[in-house]
Specification:
74% of the residues lie in helices and 0% in strands. The chain has one domain. It is mainly α. The protein contains seven helices and no strands. α2 runs antiparallel to α4, α2 crosses α7 and α5 runs antiparallel to α7.
């Protein structure tokens, strides 16, 4: 048996290997590292666009209520209105401003930029939990589907805002 087989497991003797073997090993280590980084990048992009898509759905519904669109009638406010009253539209307009602010804050924390109020992700997480519960107990079966985007957004604020802040 040649010396190569004996030296592989011993790190202090590892430097005695022929430079071509070392270069090959470094090349494969680099490739594995690249694959891991690429995998993380793909997952992060998927998460990022999933959260933005969930926000887009919420914005679509809020604008639908504000404009009194037919598609929003069974998916908002419990599905109880044939015409949304003015007060409901005003409330949804304020809610639209809040969701747009949430989008901006999410993009900031996702890209690891500092935000002024460190408590905002926790507040948005609690708002998200409330939204999940309210949508889940809705009388409208169409509105209960809104739990999915609410859960995605809530998870994102927990994962990128609360959990990563602690680590």
């Amino acid at each position: 048996m040649d010396d190569f087989g004996k030296d592989v497991g011993k790190s202090w003797r590892f430097t005695k290997l022929i430079p071509a073997y070392r270069a090959t090993l470094l090349y494969y280590q680099f490739q594995v590292l690249n694959l891991i980084m690429l995998n993380r990048l793909i997952i992060n992009r998927f998460v990022y666009w999933s959260v933005l898509l969930s926000f887009a759905w919420n914005i679509f519904l809020l604008v639908g209520v504000i404009l009194n669109l037919e598609i929003a009638k069974s998916r908002a406010a419990g599905g109880q209105f044939t015409e949304f009253p003015a007060i409901v539209r005003v409330i949804y307009l304020l809610q639209l401003a809040l969701v747009l602010y949430q989008v901006w804050i999410f993009k900031e924390i996702f890209h690891a930029k500092p935000i002024r109020l460190k408590l905002l992700p926790k507040i948005f997480f609690m708002v998200g939990i409330t939204g999940i519960l309210l949508n889940a107990v809705s009388r409208s079966s169409n509105e209960r589907w809104n739990v999915i985007p609410a859960a995605v957004i809530t998870w994102a604020f927990w994962n990128y805002g609360i959990r990563k802040e602690k680590s």
